[in-house]
């Protein structure tokens, strides 16, 4: 039996391969199987903008009978209130805390103080909710996860880190190509290799700078924005530094003939992805966005 009640979701590394499979299975259950939680509330805190995460968490809560309370920087962690005091107050009102913020250490500190489960709804370093939704999307389109080859081209950011961990645990080879100076953190690459070894998934984790080498033969090709939230002022420099890293038809032609294209969104056509790729039949980006709802509803139902 899997034990999820009360657990935090901070990076994906907390999950075993079997647990990931279980979460995805629960995510696919029909509405008739969803539990109802009476007198239950969720505190959803967004210190950064959000469309998908905010709406999918809010709707997911409603589908479970959980009352969502959405807060922004004006409400939570404002007026110099400490993380400790903020969380000690919130946990008297809500049964789960979902936080989108900047530093991973912020969500970790919240989890340390909270007596209720905490979900990382994106930090500068990880986006585990997107990771679960993406694994669900890949499984739906490819029929399975283990043995597939996932290529990520672009910034070595929170999404790159999430795919490194997701692939290592769920059994997908991960090949990452980033420009020099924008590599994924070495510690996360190392952690992914350790997880692959621990779970015996036998996957290959490769990091380099050549998008063509990364994409060659891939079953799943993924990219993400070149300038993440908080890096807006670096946009111009990044567009220059990422020249040659656009996922276009030429790059996609090197992938497996049945390869799908994924992007967590929001996308920037003509920068990280060509319109002809994201708007093609190979693109599953809106299934991916929909699966945020199903994966997060599943996670909330398991931990509550
Ligand atoms: N993909 C994603 O997390 O989207 P939002 O930033 O709009 O929530
Ligand atoms: N890397 C992006 C993901 C957005 C969902 C960011 O952090 O802004």
Notes on the structure:
By secondary structure, the protein is of the alpha/beta class. It folds into 2 domains: about 10-125 and about 290-304, Aspartate/ornithine carbamoyltransferase (Rossmann fold), CATH 3.40.50.1370; about 130-290, Rossmann fold, CATH 3.40.50.1370. The protein has 12 helices and 9 strands. The strands form 2 sheets. A 5-stranded parallel beta sheet has the order 7-6-5-8-9. It has a 4-stranded parallel beta sheet with strand order 2-1-3-4, with helices on both faces. Strand 1 (about 40-45), helix 2 and strand 2 (about 65-70) form a beta-alpha-beta unit. Helix 6 (about 160-170) packs parallel to helix 7. The two termini are about 15 Å apart. About 50% of the residues are buried. The mean pLDDT is about 100. Norvaline (NVA) binds near residues 158, 225 and 264.
Q: Which kinds of small molecule does this entry bind, naming each only once?
A: phosphoric acid mono(formamide)ester, norvaline
How far apart lie the N and C ends?
16 Å
Which shape, going by the Cα principal axes? globular
- β content, as a range? 5-15%
**Total strands:** 9
Can you give the helix content as a percent range?
40-55%
Order of helices and strands: HEHEHEHEHEHEHEHEHHEHH
| Total tally of structural domains | 2
Our count of helices gives 12
Q: Which strand order spans the largest sheet, edge to edge or round the barrel?
A: 7-6-5-8-9
CATH fold-level topology of the largest domain? Rossmann fold
Give a quick account of the main beta sheet: strands, pairing sense, barrel closure: 5 strands, parallel
By CATH, the architecture of the largest domain is named 3-Layer(aba) Sandwich
The CATH top-level class label of the largest domain: Alpha Beta
Structural class: alpha/beta
Radius of gyration: 19 Å
Mean pLDDT metric: 98
Q: What's the CATH H-level homologous superfamily of the largest domain? A: Aspartate/ornithine carbamoyltransferase
Give unreliable regions as ranges: none
